[in-house]
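Support request, please re-run this one:
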Amino acid sequence: MESSRSEFAFELRTCRWAERNWPPDGSTEHTAFVARQLGTKRRRWDTLVLECDPDALYERANFGPDRLEGDLLHVVRNAPADWAYYRDVLPHPGYPWRYVREAIHRADERGVLETRRDGNRIQIRRKWAYPDWLERIVAIENKPDLDASAARSLGRQLEYDVATGLADEVWVATRKTGERVEPVLLEDLPIEAGVLALEPDALVGEVEWYPRTLPVEEPGTRILERPEGDGRDASAARFEYVDSEEKREKRLEIAERAYERGWRSFVETMRPDCRHFELRAVDGSQLTPHCRAKNQTQTAAECSSTCPHVEPEPPTWRTKGWPIEGGPGKRCRQLLEKRRRRRRPGL
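Re-run finished. Output below.
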């Protein structure tokens, strides 16, 4: 695999390393699954590792493979075991009740909530108790080649993560150089962040610095603006506090999105229907995208409609075996989706 070609290829190998070796201390108390390119409106992480309670993760499958968004979570998590008027049992959401009613109807349509009418009143009853399946979120930033400018940018991103405390741990994964002291350790990065030196081709990682566990149950600080001048710039940074309840809800929403997607979701942002697109097995198991026209592992930006080499599958490919098989592009999606489902017990 062309691990030196792009950060994207390195990112896929980091995900595979995490799937095989997480947690680094070798404990097996948790079930972990990996997601890519997820986060919040203000912050997106390269790789997320979700540590889950195995039994609770299995129970989560009762609610299906699709994510439960914030309004659905509000309804499902607080639904009573016995019939009751929804306004009597659901906490006030902080927005109009009509949106709660819409969420109740959507939950009923998805089969994750029971509803009935008592006159003009909508009563609800849970089908299953929503399990406390998420235990920890670990965020990893992938920087295979950490030069000075990349280190400055990364340092600010990690400072934001540490101050907010949305993830339990934050890490930096970089390419292993083999030097006595890895260069990443000499960069001005927050001491709370862990450092992983990874040899992507051999898929061997070594923890160079263990992270501190962040106080996710306590209020955090969201950095909004910081001084941009030189060393004599004494202007103050702007920030706001993030209460613990907002963090708790946001963590669960992120986990639900990760549960729905899984990390092998790169074909959604590529062109698997191009005749040059194919999946290649690395180390006998990991499937990664490969472009025959460029003879390399392509990025999502390269594998798009603007690529000069893009060439849609011939109609005879797309209709071959229709509607059971479809063309190669459809088969790629099916294969990756099947692997994704295996990472979610109970589905």
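The longest strand covers residues 31-39. The chain has nine helices and 13 strands.
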